[in-house]
Design goal:
The structure holds two protein chains of two kinds. By secondary structure, chain A is of the alpha/beta class. Chain A folds into two domains: 2-209, Rossmann fold, CATH 3.40.50; 234-264. Chain A has helices spanning 40-53, 71-81, 99-112, 133-141, 195-203, 246-259, and strands at 2-7, 9-11, 21-23, 28-30, 36-38, 60-66, 85-89, 118-122, 145-155, 158-165, 168-175, 178-182, 208-209, 224-230, 239-240. Chain B is α/β, with parallel strands linked by helices. Classes of the chains: A alpha/beta, B alpha/beta. Strand 15 of chain A pairs parallel with strand 15 (288-291) of chain B.
């Protein structure tokens, strides 16, 4: 079984709002001191893939990333987690792609990789929060798309997928090949790379494929453009409650809630 | 209700542009909803009824929806930002080779020239975006739009669109659906929400939050890290990829205030935060804050409020 996980490197979504800045000319976030990390939902996807692979030698997990120079770090990280290979789609002409364009290029990359049984994508990326690329890749490759999956098992020749619904869980059976978008759950918290993993990852060759390697001849236009990027200001005057002990503060809080008529 | 919110937004667009608002209604037996949809702002309702549409299955819904879109030839297609909408929208966008902006919270329009406003970077920034294709698609974040005030005197046509689905279109089979053992009070409708985060440390601590919620007739919520640790049910998750809530009072306990969580509760009218880290971002956006370990604060808070409310 061959599994591909699409991985995006993004600005660390955990950086607090106070450290976050944007460049209004380029309409991009400013990296500043923040780290570039593997998109958290993509890490969950890698974890789902690695759990599905288990110890089976005939199951492989490949990571596929589209991006510029800083991506190497992300690729080494997912290799260190245990991916069998990582492929880098890199070309300057892809700098301005939107979700549609990214899906097109990733789909070409997946086709170029040969017979793939399962494609996994994080449900959305922590930068533009669109959540379209997974379903659009499924469209490009004519694959069934199962959204918000958090666990996948193989039973005989079928995949059994557990997915999140608005109020509960749905368990489905699907035939390969298919695509699933992955959400986080307690069962798929990403594993930390081992030291051995890091060493091996450092030595692995990462194939780099360009626009020409993928034989993309048509121009890929943006279907969606960014007009402006601004940081909203929240106006709340916070009042910190004083007190010697937690108990004292609690008493003050209770009084205030009553005074302000906030309790039903 | 996401559909009614979206209709409210559509009516606002209609007010500015004179556009006609059509609703695509899909299901097994749904034509009876026609009157309510017209009363809630639709000008015309296109209905496809088919037993294969009883439950949402992407392939069939995309096909049925595509049929209706071909009839209407819209300039803008709006989906509610619920699970179904967020799944269907990209697939329809792919079929139409048209631009899609997900999770919109507002719009601007001049004639047919739309600008869509959407939170990005977990809500740390707001992007203004345009679609370059003749047809634009959007999903709308729940709880950001006002429903249209229902007017059952409104009139509008119902147009039946027949569809037959060559079987099998189903490429996955549902084996089981498990309704969650959720909390008692519905999170999205509650006037008071008591939420816990990573700072709680374990699932036991949520008992205290449930107790507090009970005294206040509120619902229990959580941040994603608490849910991912398995401390509380996923349906309690408040945040960008969880529920969006707008209660009168929101208690954030042991929650740092990561932007993805704020996205889900920043619309709360009043925010009380308890966190032992004075630098926690939640303390910058709350109305009232206590910088302390929640274990030192909650027991007394519960006792006091219990005494005051008599619960």
């Amino acid at each position: 079984m061959r599994i591909v996980v699409c991985v995006k490197q993004v600005l660390d979504p955990e950086i607090p709002a106070r450290d976050f800045q944007v460049d209004r000319q380029t309409k991009e976030a400013i990296q500043g001191l923040a780290a570039m990390v593997v998109n958290p939902y993509d890490e969950n996807a890698i974890e789902v893939a690695l759990q599905l692979k288990g110890n089976q030698k005939d199951r492989t997990v490949s990571a596929l990333t589209l991006g510029a120079e800083p991506c190497e770090k992300a690729l080494r990280h997912v290799l260190a987690m245990g991916c069998d290979e990582a492929i880098w789609l890199k070309d300057a002409c892809w700098k301005e792609l939107d979700s549609f364009g990214i899906a097109k290029v990733l789909a070409k990359g997946i086709r170029q990789m040969g017979n793939i049984d399962l494609v996994l994508c994080g449900r959305q990326a922590g930068d533009w929060d669109m959540g379209q690329v997974g379903p659009l890749i499924a469209g490009e490759l004519s694959l069934p798309c199962v959204p918000l999956v958090y666990q996948i098992n193989l039973e005989q020749d079928r995949l059994v997928l557990k997915r999140e619904m608005d109020r509960g869980v749905e368990i489905l059976e699907g035939r390969m090949p298919l695509l699933a978008t992955i959400t986080s759950a307690s069962s798929n918290q990403p594993r930390y790379p081992t030291v051995k993993g890091l060493v091996l990852a450092g030595r692995k060759k990462i194939p780099i494929w360009s626009n020409q390697d993928l034989q993309i001849t048509e121009r890929i236009d943006r279907l969606v453009t960014v007009e402006d990027l601004i940081i909203p200001q929240y106006e709340r005057q916070v009042r910190i409650i004083d007190g010697e002990t937690g108990a004292e503060k609690a008493t003050s809080l209770a009084k205030l809630l009553v005074e302000m008529k906030l309790l039903t | 209700m996401p559909t009614l919110e979206v209709l409210g937004m559509a009516r606002k667009i209609a007010d500015k542009t004179g556009a006609q608002i059509a609703v695509a209604l899909l299901g097994a037996e749904v034509s009876s909803f026609h009157r309510e949809l017209i009363g809630s702002g639709a000008d015309v309702v296109y209905v496809t009824e088919n037993k294969d549409l009883a439950d949402y299955q992407a392939n069939i819904y995309v096909r049925a929806f595509g049929n209706i879109v071909e009839r209407i030839k819209p300039d803008l297609i709006i989906f509610p930002g619920d699970g179904t909408g967020k799944d269907l929208a990209p697939r329809v966008a792919y079929g139409l080779k048209s631009g899609l902006v997900m999770d919109c919270i507002d719009f601007e329009v001049e004639g047919k020239d739309f600008t869509f406003i959407k939170p990005v970077y977990g809500g740390k920034a707001i992007a203004r975006m345009k679609v370059t294709t003749p047809v634009a698609l959007i999903t709308v974040r729940p709880k950001t739009q006002e429903p249209f005030p229902r007017d059952m005197n409104r009139t509008g046509d119902q147009i039946i669109v027949e569809a037959e689905f060559a079987s099998p279109l189903l490429d996955t089979k549902v084996l089981e659906r498990i309704e969650e053992e959720g909390e008692e009070i519905n999170l999205e409708d509650s006037e008071v929400v008591v939420s816990g985060g990573r700072g709680l440390g374990n699932s036991e601590s949520f008992k205290q939050l449930r107790h507090l919620a009970k005294i206040l007739n509120g619902a229990v919520g959580a941040s994603r890290p608490a849910v991912d640790q398995g401390w509380i049910a996923p349906s309690c998750q408040v945040g960008q990829t969880g529920k969006i809530v707008t209660p009168s009072v929101y208690f954030a306990i042991g929650i740092s205030g990561a932007s993805q969580h704020l996205a889900g509760m920043i619309g709360s009218k009043f925010i009380v935060a308890i966190n032992r880290d004075p630098e926690a971002p939640i303390l910058k956006i709350a109305n009232l804050g206590i910088v302390d370990d929640y274990r030192e604060v909650l027991p007394t808070l519960i006792d006091e409020l219990s005494r005051i409310t008599g619960k």
